[in-house]
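The following block was generated as part of the benchmark described in Methods. Ligand: 2-acetamido-2-deoxy-beta-D-glucopyranose.
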Amino acid sequence: MAVDEEWKKPVERRGRMTAVLALATLISAFGSSFQYGYNVAVINSPSLFMQQFYNRTYVERYGQPLEENFLTLLWSLSVSMYPLGGFFGSLMVAPLVNKLGRKGTLLFNNLFSIVPAVMMGVSEIVKSYEIIIVARFIVGICAGLSSNVVPMYLGELAPKNLRGALGIVPQLFITIGILSAQVLGIRNILGNSTGWPLMLGLTGIPALIELLLLPFFPESPRYMLIQRGDERTARKALQRLRGWDNVDAEILEMHLEDRSEKAEGHLSVLSLLSQRSLRWQLASIIIMNMGQQLSGVNAIYYYADSIYATAGVEQNDIQYVTVGTGAVNVFMTIAAVFIVEASGRRLLLLCGFGICCGGCVLLTVALNLQETVTWMPYISISCVIIYVIGHAIGPSPIPYVVTTEMFRQSARPAAFMVAGSVHWFSNFTVGLVFPFLERGLGPYSFIIFSFICLLTLVYIWLVVPETKNKTFLEVCQMFAKRNKVVIKLGDGDLSMKESDKGPEDIIRVAAF
Ligand SMILES: *[C@@H]1O[C@H](CO)[C@@H](O)[C@H](O)[C@H]1NC(C)=O
């Protein structure tokens, strides 16, 4: 009986993975997301050789060696200009994607990769470390743009039933990018005194490939139809992407979606900040994003080698341990997708931050006892790996998911704008401050991270409700008392509650 009824329903045609769709996904993820991860980890392995280059250059110019403090400052600037660029890049997303289109922005964005790649590649020849610092800023802009535009582009290319699956691809390529930089950073490959300029410059290659190949793939049909009003091109793009000719249903659906979104309007960031009924939701996503970054996850990728050296790991083994951490990260990113879908958000956040907090405390203890037992470095390595796993199941993926669930369509762009800037700015802070922290506090620097994890955990425990399978209005009600507003069921908001949800609520593990 039930089967019969299913049969009679007008069947929505399920999109399939066509060659055009698969290739467009791979090219944009490799050309943009991969680079983003690559540049996170690329400065870790050759840091010693690059610092020697800074010192040498300084001596040649001014006839005296670099002061220790000034070198630390130059180095932490070289690291943290990247997330600072990411901050500005994420602010440029909205104007660019509307002017140039999604594919257009990705193509334009390659400029922000190829130019700094050349700059970093020639920095040693022209004897300038300033060039590296500036180039890191520009390549950061590239990352800030691609972290937002790739998921948007893929989300608009994919048929509904594949959106969730394709949403994982950018994140996967970010972690693969990190791993690739760690592998290339092995001393015998490029992580040595002569290989590093090439290693830094290699980031231009994926950009070049994308620049050459992506023009042959379609622009987002949704962009062509809604923003450009060009139905013919949109239709052609859809036909190529779906592999069939009749795309009327999907064109109609886009028109309908557009109309309902227009009716709902868009909140600006300012009006989002002044919405009383959304105040604690906003505070929650800000604190979760700060917690995600200030918990030090990127310190581990930016400065892994120096952390392992402090932990007493043999100089020659460090590179392999670093690669191992990267591999665990790739693996956990794949696993996290299934875990996140299956379990509640709140539980995972609490567990994740708890594990990270514990990992940092144990690491501090291990670093302090390092001199006493020979096998202590192994404990330290385990602590870092536990930390990476803890971060991958909760703090990395969930803030993004929760942001989607706490705000409805009209407020989401503004909410993501706030979340994105907090994310990049906190990332920048950690990159800048960690080397000084490490020099000043030594083994105790991780206590700060564990304290931040603990604070975030307590906040989530007290304030953040479970949002899985909740409608926007239900979330609003759970926050109503705290926000000091009264939400009446059935006041018109209700009609929109389901339109918020859908397979397009993709999961992106936005930790980096
Ligand atoms: C810079 O190099 C000189 C030797 O040329 C060395 O004495 C000095 O310690 C180095 N400075 C730093 C901060 O490594």
